[in-house]
């Protein structure tokens, strides 16, 4: 364990054996995406996708971690999250609630975020899917967002400052005319869904903590086609772009080793 001097919060470093347990959880997340991919098509509701994901996760001896989740300190302000997955369509940036009313349409994009606990350890990842064929600008948004994640992962190496991750993401997004959401971040994980450190997706000179072996965290850039401004629906969960333009997100969980990052959800 080490202490993040900027937050005074403990960063729990993981042993090789613990990283293998986290990898098993991450691989079950990946398998869940593979199952869902076959069902993401026009006419399907996000509630149907949620039910498919929950059945698959539970049938493999794991449990959804989003279902019933409330962030620390907000228990008196928002209800527990009701879904197994987050399903975020078009202008929804993150935390979209699965619904029987939200039926996928040709040309939509939908971000699916999956979190589960297997044998006490967390797996967490997100992928944005095109529903059928999408227009060129939407495809460019997907491609740039995926590349932002790849560039962030390339910087996740022992000795680099954490800020290098966000700097690489911000540089690529803005060079392509897109913007980076700032309010929602990557995070450490292990036995808990949210641990230290916080991973920003933009450059912050104050994020000077150096990356060390044994850290496990997510990188999950949310990239908007328009401005970075966000708004939250009355349900307390659904986060949208303030200008109504589309947003995409890709997320991996990775473990830091002396040899480089291991992508646990690949």
TrEMBL record:
Residues binding a divalent metal cation 2: 124, 187, 220, 251
Domain of life: Bacteria
E.C. number: 3.4.11.18
Family annotation (HAMAP family): MetAP_1 (MF_01974)
Cofactor(s) required for function per UniProt: Co(2+); Zn(2+); Mn(2+); Fe(2+)
Gene: map
Summary of the function given for this chain in its UniProt record: Removes the N-terminal methionine from nascent proteins. The N-terminal methionine is often cleaved when the second residue in the primary sequence is small and uncharged (Met-Ala-, Cys, Gly, Pro, Ser, Thr, or Val). Requires deformylation of the N(alpha)-formylated initiator methionine before it can be hydrolyzed.
Keywords of this entry: Aminopeptidase, Hydrolase, Metal-binding, Protease
GO CC annotations on file: cytosol
InterPro entries in the cross-refs: Creatinase/aminopeptidase-like, Pept_M24, Pept_M24_MAP, Pept_M24A_MAP1
Similarity comment text for this entry: Belongs to the peptidase M24A family. Methionine aminopeptidase type 1 subfamily.
Protein name: Methionine aminopeptidase
Enzyme class: hydrolase
Transmembrane parts of this sequence: none
Positions that bind a divalent metal cation 1: 113, 124, 251
Subunit-level organization: Monomer.
Span of domain Peptidase M24: 20-258
This protein's record includes keyword Transcription: no
Record field: catalytic activity: Release of N-terminal amino acids, preferentially methionine, from peptides and arylamides
Cofactor note: Binds 2 divalent metal cations per subunit. Has a high-affinity and a low affinity metal-binding site. The true nature of the physiological cofactor is under debate. The enzyme is active with cobalt, zinc, manganese or divalent iron ions. Most likely, methionine aminopeptidases function as mononuclear Fe(2+)-metalloproteases under physiological conditions, and the catalytically relevant metal-binding site has been assigned to the histidine-containing high-affinity site.
Single GO BP term: proteolysis
GO MF annotations, alphabetized: initiator methionyl aminopeptidase activity; metal ion binding; metalloaminopeptidase activity
Name of one Pfam family that matches: Peptidase_M24
Residues at which substrate binds: 95, 194
Phosphoprotein keyword on record: no
């Amino acid at each position: 364990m080490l202490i993040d001097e900027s937050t005074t919060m403990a960063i729990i470093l993981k042993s090789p054996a613990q990283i293998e347990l986290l990898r098993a959880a991450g691989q079950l997340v990946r398998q869940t995406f593979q199952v869902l991919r076959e069902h993401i098509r026009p006419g399907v509701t996000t509630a149907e996708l949620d039910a498919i994901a929950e059945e698959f996760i539970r049938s493999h001896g794991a449990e959804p971690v989003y279902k019933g989740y409330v962030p620390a300190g907000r228990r008196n302000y928002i209800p527990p999250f009701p879904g197994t997955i987050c399903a975020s369509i078009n202008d929804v940036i993150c935390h979209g609630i699965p619904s029987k009313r939200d039926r996928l349409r040709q040309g939509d994009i939908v971000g699916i975020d999956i979190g589960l606990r297997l044998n006490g350890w967390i797996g967490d990842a997100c992928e944005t899917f095109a529903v059928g064929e999408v227009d060129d600008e939407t495809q460019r948004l997907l491609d740039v967002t995926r590349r932002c994640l790849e560039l962030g992962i390339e910087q996740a190496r022992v000795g680099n400052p954490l800020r290098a991750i966000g700097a690489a993401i911000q540089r690529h997004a803005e060079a392509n005319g897109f913007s980076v959401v700032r309010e929602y971040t990557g995070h450490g994980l292990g036995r808990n869904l949210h641990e230290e450190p916080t991973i920003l997706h933009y450059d912050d000179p104050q994020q000077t903590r150096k990356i060390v072996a044994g850290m496990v965290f997510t990188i999950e850039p949310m990239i908007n086609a328009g401005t970075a401004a966000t708004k939250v629906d009355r349900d307390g969960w659904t986060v949208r772009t303030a200008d109504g333009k589309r947003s995409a997100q890709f997320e991996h969980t990775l473990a830091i080793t002396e040899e480089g990052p291991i992508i646990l959800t690949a």
